[in-house]
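MODEL INPUT / OUTPUT PAIR
PAIR INDEX: 1
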Amino acid sequence: PWGKKTPKGEIRLMSSLLDSAVFPGIQGGPLEHVIAAKAVAFGEALDPSYKTYQAQVQKNAAVMAQAFMDKGYKIISDGTDNHSMLIDLRTKFPDLTGKVAEKALVLADITVNKNMVPFDSRSPFLTSGIRVGTPAISTRGAKEALMGEIVEFIDNVLSAPEDAAVIKAVREQVNQTMADYPLFAW
């Protein structure tokens, strides 16, 4: 960049080049709605109930991970210390891809993400794993007792990912169960 000139032939200062690289290149404007959202999030995080919520998310995840392992699934870290778990499908369903699993579960109204696992021979578009988390269901008020039932729903779909009747039956069970845990329980 040294000696770079403007169209008028003036030498550009390094500070000018850096400023133009940072803004708007990798930094956007101060978006008021983003600032407001962060302020609300930080305010919620300061409330003692947030710590209770986070503890519940973690407890739910630990119980869910154990329920998956009890059903023969391989959890990449042999459990979880946080809100999510990465499941290697190859152990229980060697031919099932993360892409097919994700699609079948979404059709059953269960949200997961396909995810690569260590030493995955499949592409990032297919994958051999799925990632499952507990924040959304914990936000709806779910406790540890429900985690086994959710794992059962997931296992039923993954056992027959191409069977529309199984997916439909699980979707009905999911919606019936989650009716007791509304999105907005004000």
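PAIR INDEX: 2
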Amino acid sequence: MLVIGENIIQCFQTVRDQVVFTDKRVIVVNVQRITGKKTSYFSYPYSKVLYFGIETAGVLDIDSELIMTFANGTVLQFDFRSKVDIKGICSNIQQYIL
């Protein structure tokens, strides 16, 4: 699914999905949980991101969030386990968006 010259930066298993950050886009992999036989792949290019934000895990929180809003109105929200370096993810995204 990668194009020539595209590199994977980070991959994560979120609470609901799998998310792959490349140097060109975000790829969301959604596996149907019941059977595991049906898989959806969605590609969101960084060039279409209007803004994004993070919410870090608090003392009693079990997860942190990344929210990305795209030019077509699509809003992606990813929930990561608290041990994931959400600030590091944010830093990597900034390199390709800004």
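PAIR 2 NOTE: Residues 8-97 form a domain with the PH-domain like fold (CATH 2.30.29.30).
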